[in-house]
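Appendix B, Record 12. Input sequence as logged:
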Amino acid sequence: MSTSNSSALPGPGSAHARMATTIHIVSLLRFLAPIVAMLLVWEFCVRTGLANAAILPSPSMILVRGAELLGFSHADHSPLISHILYSLVRAMSAFILGCMVAIPLGFLLGLNAFAYRWVSPIISLMLPLPALAWTPIFLVIMGQSEATIVWVCFLGAVFPILYATIQGVRSITKQSLWVVRSMGARRRDIFFKVLLPGSLPALMAGLKLGMAHSWRTLVAAEMMAALSSGVGFMIFSARTYMDVSTMFVGIVVLAVIGMTIEHGLFGPLEKMTVRRWHNTGRVGGSR
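Logged structural output:
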């Protein structure tokens, strides 16, 4: 009888899980509280006439317009979701392409001092240059097309990732490499247990910056190069009819998607890698 009663009692594991859930909920509420307060003040200003609704629509008006664009009344077609999907495909394609180029090149330049000396001035020259400055050139070469948008976003993503990867690799001391080599570590072990974990904090920051640059560049690129789709195109085309509510719907969508990518994609990835390895005092190796 005592055995069954003891098994029914909650163990320390379940108490720890409840505590972790409570902490996450409190953290989420703290994060959302300033946003909710801003929206309430915004709504109040429009409702009381302190702000012109024709220029600055209230959050409730934007929400209603967003529901219309989502096409709840027409389940077979949603203009807003269509624009979002086009933009996401373009941005993610450019980001993935940027990672495929920047990360291997960054490790190569970070490990090879001679190559770094030759390429570093070019990176310093290109890094502060806005990717949008290349848009007219790509428009002349490729016209208004998907390729133009993707390549412009690629230039927005590749240099932050490349620079962060180089700095992350160069931050690893030679002594660390000498120690693991003297212990007979293979090149594969050196990469996965020293180079990659050691450079990961800087690399993760570069990935966040690269994705943010790609996402911001996408909007302007779609305004100039997109023919009929994309959130940037939706915002730009709405100006023709002075449809301010649609413009704000696009702005809100861009902000929400950007925040979702930041916290939904990079947050768990950072938790599984950077925080796991570095908060425990480990750089690579098995747990």
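The longest helix spans residues 187-225.
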